[in-house]
Design goal:
- With 218 residues, the chain is α/β, with parallel strands linked by helices.
- It has seven helices and eight strands, in the order αβαββββααβαβαβα.
- Strands 2-1-6-7-8 form a five-stranded parallel sheet, with helices on both faces. Strands 3-4-5 form a three-stranded antiparallel sheet.
- Helix 5 links the parallel strand 6 and strand 7.
- Helix 1 crosses helix 2.
- The longest helix is centred in the middle third of the chain and has 23 residues.
């Protein structure tokens, strides 16, 4: 595939074509990464006729190099840790980052789940969807959290991604779907005509549109 996408909905439609083998399967759940991945995921889930939900994760970034993660937090108290990186940090720095990201995770979970049950992935095939993959740091964190939440299989699906990030993430997932892999890459935004910042309202509307289905239903 060449070029760019008109918007995130169009990107989701293109992504759904590569995920057609998962259509109407009751064990599949599409998880949109907050916030930009949610509109993409909503279209994917609607096209495939499968469950849709949101995955809120918070990457634990090194204070002076935020793109370098020493771990990640997910819903339900899930925490994953990269000990090789964390061991080089002062405990005070670790504690400050943890406190900040735990608070932000709790706030976002409350905002986006809006009273719905906690996310549970035990035995599910989780399709993780974002609007693009640049460095791969967020994708790596999402995969780790999904595994910790009990997903039986993890598929990472993005409309566009850099070759370098894709090569790093491919060994970590059961399947990687990315229809647009341009080189040179640059930034995710350059491959969308409309790449506005997704608002909390848009996330809430996507998740409350009727395309969210309880686990095991279609």
């Amino acid at each position: 595939m060449d070029g760019s996408f008109p918007d995130r909905a169009a990107a989701g439609a293109a992504l759904a074509e590569g995920l057609a083998g998962y259509a109407w399967r009751p064990d599949v759940i599409v998880l949109g990464l907050v916030r930009g991945g949610v509109p993409v995921a909503a279209t994917v889930a609607a096209r495939l006729g499968v469950a849709l939900d949101v995955l809120v994760i918070r990457k634990l970034g090194v204070p002076w190099a935020p793109e370098v993660a020493f771990g990640a937090l997910g819903p339900g108290g899930v925490a994953v840790r990269n000990d090789d990186v964390a061991a080089r940090l002062d405990q005070a720095d670790v504690d400050r980052v943890l406190a900040r990201e735990e608070a932000e995770l709790a706030a976002r979970e409350a905002r986006y789940r809006a009273g719905r049950p906690p996310l549970r992935l035990n035995g599910r095939l989780a399709v993780l969807v974002d609007d693009g993959l640049a460095t791969g740091a967020t994708g790596r964190a999402a995969v780790a959290v999904a595994r910790e939440l009990g997903a039986a299989r993890v598929v990472l699906a993005v409309p566009v991604g850099s070759a370098r990030a894709l090569s790093v993430l491919a060994p970590l997932v059961d399947e990687l779907v990315c229809p647009l892999q341009p080189e040179p890459f640059g930034a995710v935004s350059q491959f969308y005509d409309d790449f506005h910042q997704v608002t909390d309202r848009e996330v809430a509307e996507a998740l409350g549109s009727g395309r969210v289905r309880p686990p095991g239903t279609v």
